[in-house]
Amino acid sequence: MNRKATAVWQGSGKDGKGRLTTQSGVLSENPYGFNTRFENEPGTNPEELIAAAHAGCFTMALAFQLQGAGLTAREMRTEAVVTLEKDGDGFTITRSALTLSADIPGIDKAKFDELAGIAEKNCPVSKLLKAEITLAATLTSA
Q: Where is this region: Disordered (predicted)?
């Protein structure tokens, strides 16, 4: 299974503007740029999208862990905070901090902690944040 998203950028790093589109159409030409990434202007940014992906992936992974244990959550609410820090001349994403609040009938704290830990380690986005990244680059003008 493959899912894709497309970023289109025009202009310089600080003054340029970009648009993000996802295969599903949930994002369609959504604006992003320096101002949405570093100045909290309206629009999205890569870190916000990573945070949404990590929160969603982890929460779904935990739902499957619970299902395997014969349990069902009434509600799970996960916040992911992705941290972008200055790193020399650039920036580095240094962490994704997950905070979970869950209403799960019939589970004790030890089992809850165990299943949440398994979900955090095994959700595909957690694995991606530790994965090898590949790049195929083509220059269309010289």
A: 1-26
pTM: 0.89
Provide the 8-state DSSP code for 69: T
Query: In this structure, which amino acid lies at residue 83?
Result: T
Helix axes 46-68, 109-122, angle to 10 degrees: 130
Same domain, 38 and 2: yes
Tell me the C-alpha distance between 122 and 117, whole Å: 9
Task: Determine the Cα–Cα distance for residues 101 and 97; give it in Å rounded to an integer.
Answer: 13
pLDDT tens across 74-93, in order? Answer: 999 999 999 999 999 998 89
Specify the CATH number for the domain of residue 74.
Answer: 3.30.300.20
3-state DSSP assignment of residue 4? coil
pLDDT for 140 equals 72
Q: What are phi and psi of 83, to 5 degrees?
A: -105, 125
Query: Is 78 within the bounds of a domain?
Result: yes
- Structurally, the chain folds into a number of domains equal to 2
